[in-house]
From TrEMBL:
Residues 448-457 have a biased composition (Low complexity). InterPro entries: DNA_primase_core_N_sf, DNA_primase_DnaG, DNA_primase_Znf_CHC2, DnaG_bac, DNAG_N, DnaG_primase, TOPRIM_DnaG_bac, TOPRIM_dom. Its EC number is 2.7.7.101. This is DNA primase. Contains an N-terminal zinc-binding domain, a central core domain that contains the primase activity, and a C-terminal DnaB-binding domain. GO terms for molecular function: DNA binding; DNA-directed RNA polymerase activity; zinc ion binding. A zinc finger (CHC2-type) spans 43-67. RNA polymerase that catalyzes the synthesis of short RNA molecules used as primers for DNA polymerase during DNA replication. SMART domains: TOPRIM, ZnF_CHCC. Belongs to the DnaG primase family. Binds 1 zinc ion per monomer. Keywords: Coiled coil, DNA replication, DNA-binding, DNA-directed RNA polymerase, Magnesium, Metal-binding, Nucleotidyltransferase, Primosome, Transcription, Transferase, Zinc, Zinc-finger.
Amino acid sequence: MSLPPGFLDELRNRLSLTQVVGRKVMWDMRKSNQGKGDMWAPCPFHHEKTASFHVDDRKGFYYCFGCHAKGDALKFVQETENVGFMEAVEILAREAGMPMPARDPKAQEKQDFRGQLAEVMEQAVQFFRLNLNAGSGGAARDYLVRRGLKGAALERWEVGFAPDGWQGLWDHLRGKGVREELIFGAGLAKPSTRGGKPYDVFRNRIMFPIRDARGRCIAFGGRAMDPKDNAKYLNSPETVLFDKGRSLFNHGPARTAAGQGQPLVVAEGYMDVIALSEAGFGAAVAPLGTAVTEEQLHMLWRIADEPIIALDGDTAGLRAAMRVIDLALPLLEAGKSLRFAIMPEGKDPDDLIRAEGSAAMQNVLDQAVPMVRLLWQRETEGRVFDSPERKAALDKNLREKIMLIRDPSIRTHYGQEIKDLRWQLFRPQRVSRTQTWQKRGPGRPENAPASSSARSSFLASTQNAEIHLREAAILAIAILNPQVVVEFEHQLEEMECHDPDYAALRQALLRHAIDDPENLKDHIIASLGGEVLENLLNLRHVAVIPCVYKPGDDEKAAMTMAEELAKIKALRGYEAEVDEAREDIADTEDEALTYRLARAAEERNRASRSQNEDKAIFEVADNGARIKRDEREAFAAIMAGIKFDRKRR
């Protein structure tokens, strides 16, 4: 069977020889240099103790200095798996996610054609470089100097210049005996539609060679010198060598730099990549004239687990970032994601580095945010969620995005992160008592009567203790009856849970109860340990609740949850009334104070109506502290005493 042109090249580009060989050997990390792809190990083909087997990942070849075995990834699979050439191709193609092609009897002929095209492209590189240094390239040289590119950098990037003529490159290549079909096939010239000579694709442009991962020139990018040109940047047309959706500018050098520990940065254009690399960010790449494609994302993830997308800080750059998010969501895997570094408004990496230096660029990269945060920003920024309908619309949009994620584990974590962000956005903004006193004016807490302050403190401690007990009951009911959580999700989110153990239980409950209710207890034990859950369920006032000691009745559990949550809400209303009464003690007439105290008592009574039902709750506190019956009776006495003190004054 013959393979189509480019198939083996693509297969080798997609695979790392180090990964293929690494399944069979144990690397000697003292002798190896992983960053440079220079790896050593004991030879898998003969018995030895020393590391004489060498893998050069950049060249894609291995060699043993002991037994002299040598070859590439295909040869290695053939030798170690005892299979033929085509079987080795099939093994590696499956690993690389490439379907095997249909039989093509002319594949060798096409492969030879590709090799000839690559040679023509190298001749074009030399032609453009010579013209940059010629008289016709003076304006282009001046422009490059203004952009910060001088001699050494121009040599490194092989920057050239296409002269402003119709047949400059065509005549040069034909003069060297290059066949017309090769010039056309390389995308360097086009036939005339008016019967004249073919004409060059690139004219009066600064030229940037585009090389594949193996270093072969496969295309060019040209920057127009004429500001009136319709296309500021122009790429080679697609050819048998060049597929722009499967190529990255600076692919090979960036892969090497990333292997040495540098972050992989994805910019928008050639000049951005060159500026980043010259400033010390060698692992920089750019897509070629299109939005990032699925194939390019997989290429990026083969270089680094978490590339940083550094897009221009303008509207177009943000739109491009959002397109990348939508593309990436279904492709996410454990350990494979993206981060986003948003440039200052109106600047690209090249602008920022020239204006403020590499430190400013490093600062932007250090502030890169995870993809989930940019997704949240897109759905919430500039919007007001002041109605249930708008909140529901936000939930719907986010749910649709999260459901695009195929990996169930990542989908769960995204859901929890979104839930946490949603809680921060919609949580009640409570004003503390200290802030309330401050709003009333300076000196109020200090000047308030000592007896009033003490009484209020007593009321608050009693109040908080009862809320603490009811929170324990709610958490226990929800943990043992997780099917009811979805109905009370928002109320559970709004529970304050000042006890850190209860807060941790609440977070674990919300994280796992809806997605995996059957294993909720296991998730809680795994994240918090068994002691926290055991302490909760062993509380005497919790253990006597019917749907705790006999869980499974969802209707009863839902009813009990609703009652407990309503009582907490009533207690919070009572707390607010006491706060207002404290203020009124200092500066309100007796009639108003009496009214406030009456309302506080009413709220307190409403929260305590089911005394028989809640007998255990009032008798036993979490940590062994008891709420005595005379403390409840003291409430009325305190209220009356405050009124009596006020009238006496």
